[in-house]
Amino acid sequence: MKTLQFKTNINCGGCIKSVTPALNQEAGAGNWQVDTANPDKILTVTSDKLTAEQVVQAVEKAGFRIQAA
């Protein structure tokens, strides 16, 4: 398993709810989390198969900004 981390603008429960379907589809439920207490709103994804580009595309498609941490 590899761990990917990104800075995002996912900053509240409503934002997490909005991005959940896209991230669950790409990474699977339970394989990602957003640290909304961190000033950079760090998204951590654990996966064997996903690339950073796939995560970026899923988050951007859900309407949020994302960049490598």
TrEMBL record:
Protein name: Copper chaperone CopZ
InterPro entries: HMA_dom (IPR006121), HMA_dom_sf (IPR036163)
Organism: Hymenobacter artigasi
Residue ranges of the TM segments: none
Any Pfam family: HMA
HMA domain segment(s): 1-67
